[in-house]
Every structure is written in structure tokens, then in C-alpha cells.
Design a protein that fits this description.
homodimer, Rossmann fold, 2 domains, 5-stranded mixed β-sheet, 14 helices, 13 strands, 16% strand, elongated, EC 2.7.1.90 (chains A, B)
């Protein structure tokens, strides 16, 4: 008699990326071939889908559409920013999860997210022990912030890194060609509230002296206005223009974000966001240079059209490995990317305990930032460069990328109770 | 005895684009094979280079580098925003041009720009008549604003159009997947101070009901706050989120730009630019939805990595045709793109008189905008769609596009006088 198969729950968590669906593709394609796993149910809008018993039946999706996830940005099943509290604090949520899992024969839990999500995954992995429900729980790394520990890098980061490096190079070419009579300073704001990984990636565009970006502002380095303006002025005088990448998390020594520097609108409301215009105005006021600024916001993390092929491959591999781990009877672990000690970049899949991953933030080492605090070191470049390698272009129709939209059919509810989030 | 060859002057003018260098490539490659034209001297920073006698000798550039211009954004020789006054107003500038042209055996003038530039080209074309200097002058169209008359469209526009359509599609996918618990409204600001062509291109991403963008704000349509907010609210309630493309030139009925709506910084200075945050704050204040906004600024017009293949082909063809026109003894004309009356999009090269092009702005027809003022019509789509067709990817190395930087060697000056701009 064939062994009974149990279903799997897969959820996307936190901010989505250009390649989190490639991970979903890896999970679903691998699970479809598994001897132990039945159907994969995806949470509608992440973990909330489990709590609300809104389960998407991925078996209703065609092979072609699932394959198409590999080149579709965003979260195909919806994501959310809901963090489960500890079992002591909110036992009801865990009881509800078990109730839903039981009702739908779910004994595998795949949770695809960043630091907070791995913490949730870790809590769920303990349900066997703490609440007697047999569950196999595998975390899957994802975050544009690149701040998960143990893994060499995080799926999602390589593509936003590539977008930022390509964009600042292109915009700087533009500024350079106009600088004699027009814009002399260009400021591009990128994501990264706590860690400067994304801003650092902009530095890859600078391959020789004089190349843009000339200045990078990191959250790790306290902003020194005087020093910064001096550097801007020197750069314009030397190269004719100055291109700047600024992390949204750039802050003064006392921790105040530059973007919170007191700007108010006509109604006296605090102006929200925009460290780029703040920095640009500062330059205009003190140095008088004509400027332009850009805030790429979601464009950077959704830019599947310029995704890193390395990132796409790794994102898929993490999904595949997660299912293989579950198939092998592992629990409470997360696949990782391990950089091999080879001359030419190569990597393999490793394994980390969720307990070691949960709630640990990997910051940029100080040795990755130049002594003056405005650029990246060679060591940083060696680390970042391989992650943006290769172009993985989506298919196009009518001049536009053809991203997949799934049917997302919900499984019929079996529970009578509703759950209030 | 071979006919004496005369040199050509080529200048890039006004805001640069992702494909103006493809036009330069067309000019130089075609001129190199011409029986009449000697060397092509490019103006360093546009027309200023002629006035200052700063002429770049393009014959010093390798065949490979010139070919590389086809996939390099920005202005490889530098551009400027200097508009020549009329001959009556500033005869000195025209005398200087003739002096420089004479000193360097220049009798061909190729001027690559938008409306203002074609006006300059027109004035220069009259030099034979007005000042007795034998010059052949050909204008070459270029502008992301797509506002030149007679030509069906302008090189540079197709690529920014593709960037905007791709970007709003990608960002909207992102927002949609997070909307249940997070951001519900996304606002993307695009260029276009007078005409809404670029904003309209965002509309191409909407291929079926519910697709983003849900709202486009055009400079052509007076902004009605109440009507706008109602539409945002309805859209969020119906589709769960709302994606908006806003033209930087969007204005109230009285002509006040939204971006000039009185926002001041902490020092009481007028906050410069940023209609996207203005609109986003408006939504937050009145409807309370969580929002994100992006300002792509130069990124959009420099985005060679996602250039339209149609645009690249047309940009090159305009440069080639300009030289062919000169070779054929034409003067005071500009090559145009002529849309052929075929079922499948096709085009050919036409010809317009500079006199008819100079200082005429082509606005978007009202019939291209939906009745409610928030979207594009099928007629508009039929016009725009072919212009973003095809992907023309640059070569990559180390994960980054390899854009060409020319040597830009200056010709030895022959004049003793300097000219003050």
C-alpha cells in the first residue's frame, strides 16, 4: 500500500521581491514530484490565509503557469506583514493554525520570508513539541535587505542590487552629458532602513576612478553634513558632476533619519519620506548646484525585467531544497546559499537551524565601507559582484513582459468558525 | 581629381535620451562612407562646442566604439540647453559659428534635438542666404517628449514609454500582492511638463479591466481633486489597490502645477519637485490609505537596458537619413518617421522642412484620453503600442551593461579668439 501523502502549506511573507515567485516555482514543481507530499496549498496573503482558512489550491494551476512564476515578480499568492506572537502571548493563533492544518491534512509548512518570518517558522516548527501536532517546518530565505544570517546572501537581493547598479550607471551617464550647462548633482534614493546592502550595490557601477556613484550614504555611517557637502563640491569640481546613492535609512549621529528632518507641507503636515529630495535641497541651499533626484521605491524590488540570473537560480534552488529537506524528514531548518571557495564564483545549498536564523540581523561589515564612509571597498565588491551576474529576461508580448497571473482558486472551507486577525 | 570633401559638424542638443547615441552612430557610420563628407566633428556639449571651437574629432574613435554608441544611453559628446537667438538679436553667435566652420572646413551641420533645436537648425540653414556662408543644414529629431510635429513619433520616446509601461506593471504587481495588509495606493511620477505622451504610455500596461495603472493624470486635463479622490477610493474598494501614473506637469484648472502646491521645507524654502509625494499625501490625508510613491526622473530617459528595439532602429535610421539627405544636396530639412498604412506596423523615412518643424509643439489629441480624463483610449493604444515593440538589450560584463565611453579628442584650435557664451 502506498504511503499516505500529506499536504503542504506554503506562504510568502513580508515585502515581496522580483524572484520570490521563482522560489514558489521551486517549491511547487519539486513537491509535485514528491512521494510524501500531496497538494501544495498556498496561503492567500501569506500566513493570514492559513488563519482565515483561505488556502489556494496550487494543483489547479497549469504546469505552464507554475513554470511562469520563475519570471514573474511580486507575490503570486499575496503576502502580508503579520508576525505571529509567541505561543505564550497568543496561543489562539497557533491553535487556529493546527485546526486549519488538521482540517486540510497539512503536515508540511514552508515559510518564505525574512528575519521575522523565520522567527514565525521557528515557532511553528515547535508545534509538535509544544502542542502535539506533527508538523514539518522549513523556512525559505527571502529578502531584498540581504540581512539574514548564516546564508551567504538572500534571494531577492541580487536582483535589486543589479537594478540599483544599472540605474545609477545609466542616470549618471545622462547627468554627465548635460552637466556643463545643466544638472550637476544627481541623487538616487534606494531601500535599506537598517542595513546598507542595497546602497552598497550601487557602488558596483563604479569600476574606475571618476565613475558614478561618487558618493554612497549608508545607514551604518552617521551623516556628517559638512563632510558630505565638501565631498560633493570636490567631486563636481573634479569630474564636472556628482552622482549620489542614498539609503532611505541614512541618519544623523543622534539617530534622526534625514527623511524625518522636519519638512512640512502647506498644511503643516510632516512631509513623508524622501531622503533624496532632502539631500538634494541641502546641496542646492549650500552649494547652489542644479540637481535632480529619483526615488525608485517599489520599482527597484519589482524589477524582474532586469533580474540577476544568479538570483533567479538561487531563489528557485532554495524552494527546491526546502521540499527536499522536508522529504528527507528534516524539521526546523532553512536552506542557505553557501559560497564555495573557488576562484570563479560558485555556490551550493547549505542548511541552517531556524533557531539560529530567527531574529538575527546581518549588518554590513565596517570593512565593506571605505574609510571616509562614502564608498565600498574591494572586499565588498568581491562579495557583491557575483550576485548580480547574468541576465534573466522574461518573455515579452506587445513590448511588455508577460507576467503570470494565477487562477488562485480557494480550497473549500471545512471549518465553521471564522478567525479574527 | 576627386571632389573636395568638406567636414561635418554634429551636435546633440537638449535633454538626452536612451537612443540619441544610436542616432550619432547612424550619422557617423553613414558619413564615413560618404563621397562628399570628410570628417565628422562633434560639438563638445552641443552647439557650445562649436561656439567655443571645442570640436571632437570622431575619426579618432574606433569602428567598434562608434558601433557601441548604438547601445549606449546619454549624449556621448555632451549636450546642452543653449538656444541660439535670432540673427537680428545675436549676430555675434552666427558670425562665430561661421568663423569656426570656415577654420575647420565645415560645410555640413547636423543638429540632433527637439523643438528648440530644430529652430536653431532652421536659423543655421539660412546662413547661406543671410550671411553668405555655404552650409548644408539637416535637423535630426530627438525628444522623449514626443512633441515634434509632422514626424509620426520622436526617437527617444519609444524607450521611455517602454520603461514607464514596464515599471508601472511591475510595481503594481508588487502593490497588489501586499495590498491586503499594507500599501494600497502607489503613485509613480513621470516626465512631461507640457504634453502627456509619457504618462499615456503607462496606460499600455493596462490590457484588461482591473490592470494597472488605474488612473493616469495628464497635463492636458485640469486636476480635479474631488473627482480624483473619488476614483482612487472606488478603485481601492473594487480591486483592493490603486496604481497611479502622474505626469510632472499635472496642474489645477488655474495652471498651478500640483508640484508647486506650496510645500515648504523646515527652513521655509519652497520644496522643489515631486508631484508624486504631493498626490500621495493628498490621498493619505483624505482617504487614509497607506501609500508608496516613486519618482523615476532621469532613470526613465536613460534606461537603455530596457530600450525599445523599434526606437533604437528609428533613432539610427534618422541619423543615417540625415547624412543621406545632405549627400543628396538637400538643405533645411529633417528626416521624419512616417507610419505606413499597413495592418502590421511598419514605417519609412520621410522629410519635413525645418521651417515647418521649428517651434511647433504636437500635443496629445483629446481623443487619446478617455472621457473621464483618467486613462487612454483604444485609438491612443493603437498609436503607442508599436513604439515600444522589441527589446534591444545592451551587452553585459560583470552583471552590468557595457556602455561605451569615447576618447573625445578635441581638434586642435585654429582660432586665436575665444568666445564668451
Amino acid at each position: 500500500m502506498a504511503k499516505k501523502k500529506y499536504n503542504a502549506f506554503y506562504a510568502q511573507s513580508g515585502g515581496v521581491t522580483a524572484v520570490i515567485n521563482a522560489t514558489a516555482c521551486g517549491v511547487i514543481e519539486t513537491a509535485r514530484a514528491s512521494k510524501n507530499i500531496g497538494k501544495v496549498y498556498a496561503g492567500k496573503n501569506g500566513i493570514i490565509g492559513a488563519l482565515r482558512e483561505e488556502l489556494i489550491d496550487t494543483s489547479k494551476e497549469s504546469k505552464k503557469d507554475i513554470a511562469g512564476l520563475k519570471f514573474t515578480p511580486s507575490g503570486a499568492f499575496g503576502s502580508c506583514r503579520h508576525k505571529l506572537k509567541s505561543i505564550e502571548e497568543n496561543k489562539a493563533e497557533y491553535e487556529r493554525l493546527i485546526e486549519v492544518f488538521k482540517a486540510h491534512d497539512i503536515r508540511y509548512f514552508f515559510y518564505n520570508g525574512g528575519g521575522d518570518s523565520q522567527d514565525t517558522a521557528h515557532k511553528v516548527s515547535q508545534l509538535s513539541e509544544t502542542m502535539g501536532y506533527p508538523i514539518t517546518c522549513i523556512g525559505i530565505p527571502k529578502t531584498v535587505d540581504n540581512d539574514l544570517p548564516i546564508t551567504d546572501n538572500c534571494p531577492g537581493f541580487g536582483s535589486v542590487a543589479k537594478y540599483v547598479a544599472v540605474s545609477i550607471r545609466e542616470a549618471a551617464f545622462d547627468v554627465k552629458s548635460m552637466a556643463e550647462t545643466s544638472t550637476k548633482v544627481f541623487v538616487m534614493e534606494v531601500m535599506g532602513r537598517h542595513a546598507g546592502w542595497i546602497a552598497a550595490a550601487g557602488g558596483l557601477a563604479c569600476e574606475k576612478e571618476g565613475d558614478a556613484p561618487h558618493i554612497i550614504l549608508f545607514p551604518e555611517i552617521a551623516f556628517n553634513k559638512e563632510k558630505f557637502l565638501k565631498k560633493v563640491d570636490r567631486t563636481v569640481k573634479k569630474f564636472g558632476y556628482c552622482a549620489i546613492v542614498v539609503s532611505e535609512g541614512t541618519a544623523y549621529k543622534d539617530g534622526t533619519f534625514l527623511a524625518d528632518a522636519g519638512t512640512v507641507d502647506a498644511f503643516g503636515h510632516k512631509q513623508l519620506g524622501g531622503v533624496a529630495p532632502e539631500v538634494a535641497n541641502m546641496i542646492k541651499d549650500e552649494l547652489g548646484y542644479k540637481y535632480h533626484w529619483a526615488v525608485s521605491d517599489y520599482l527597484q524590488r519589482a524589477a524582474r525585467h532586469i533580474a540577476s540570473a544568479t538570483d533567479v537560480d538561487q531563489a528557485y534552488a532554495m524552494g527546491k531544497a526546502a521540499v527536499e529537506f522536508a522529504d528527507a524528514g528534516k524539521n526546523a531548518v532553512m536552506p542557505t546559499i553557501v559560497r564555495k571557495n573557488t576562484k570563479k564564483y560558485s555556490w551550493t545549498v547549505g542548511e541552517a537551524k531556524l533557531a539560529d536564523v530567527a531574529n538575527v540581523e546581518k549588518m554590513m561589515p565596517r570593512s565593506y565601507i571605505t574609510r571616509d564612509g562614502f564608498g565600498i571597498t574591494e572586499e565588498c565588491r568581491q562579495y557583491l559582484q557575483p550576485l548580480i551576474q547574468g541576465e534573466s529576461y522574461p518573455p515579452y508580448k506587445n513590448g511588455l513582459p508577460q507576467y503570470v497571473e494565477l487562477k488562485n482558486e480557494l480550497v473549500k472551507k471545512k471549518l465553521k468558525t471564522k478567525f479574527k486577525i
